[in-house]
UniProtKB/TrEMBL annotation:
Keywords recorded for this protein, A-Z: ATP-binding, Cytoplasm, Kinase, Nucleotide-binding, Transferase
InterPro entries recorded: Cytidylate_kin, Cytidylate_kinase_dom, P-loop_NTPase
Catalytic activity: CMP + ATP = CDP + ADP; dCMP + ATP = dCDP + ADP
Top-level division of the source organism's lineage: Bacteria
A single GO cellular-component term on record: cytosol
One GO biological process term: nucleobase-containing small molecule interconversion
Protein name in UniProt: Cytidylate kinase
Class of this enzyme: transferase
Chief location: cytoplasm
Binding-site positions, ATP: 11-19
Amino acid sequence: DSDRINVAIDGPAGAGKSTVARKVAEKLGYIYVDTGAMYRAVTLAANRLGIEPHESDRLKKLVESIHIRLKPVVDGQIVLLNEEDVTNAIRTREVTLRVSQVASHEAVRMKLVDMQRELASLKGIVMDGRDIGTQVLPQAELKIFLIASVQIRALRRYQELKENERIPLQQLEQEIADRDRSDEQREISPLSCAKDAIVLDSSELTIDQVVALILDLSRTKMAEAK
Ligand code: CDP
Ligand code: CDP
């Protein structure tokens, strides 16, 4: 359709990006792309080979040699690393603790950003990450910068932990704050709000309220795109 748009959703960890992006895509009949999953897949591959997150040259060789694929499914996406389904394996704490440092390397970002732009070459994409509105899809018709207080984001993540993953809430909050800082301060494509992004604070909102707000904004942009 001529009125299809692209939606970019950025923000810090636990703001609700992937949850709401998935639902918005479902409602619009769009494809959801979780770019964080791609950085996580590279990190998983590095961990398995014993590559440390500071080993720039080894990481460069690694991203050049691995194959990452996102397969859209009804309720989200499947992540394939060399055709192995790693959708769950990329969510472990070992990956989470290292992903931000792995994502700071230029070679890693160049390869993944190329893939992300390619995925969005047709309109009708909802993409979430840290640099989608600023770097990956600066032409996206709708840009959302989703935020929430670090306490609330930590609590949300805490409630998602499985029995065998329990760590103190305080520690989780510290880890999220550290990752925010590292994502905001890296040299290449740091987490930042695009000038033309709409800032949504989800601290006091339910998932459905955030989804409804983004759907309203999307429909306005779609009408403009016609
Ligand atoms: O889901 P969560 O917020 O924990 O993180 P994610 O979206 O899976 O992203 C994991 C990490 O990948 C982030 O902390 C960033 O370091 C990196 N990332 C990035 O650098 N650029 C993106 N577009 C997406 C993720
Ligand atoms: O992708 P991102 O790291 O930004 O956040 P997420 O993985 O979607 O995680 C957010 C968590 O907070 C999920 O467990 C959601 O159910 C919950 N939540 C939300 O996303 N939005 C709200 N307004 C309230 C709760």
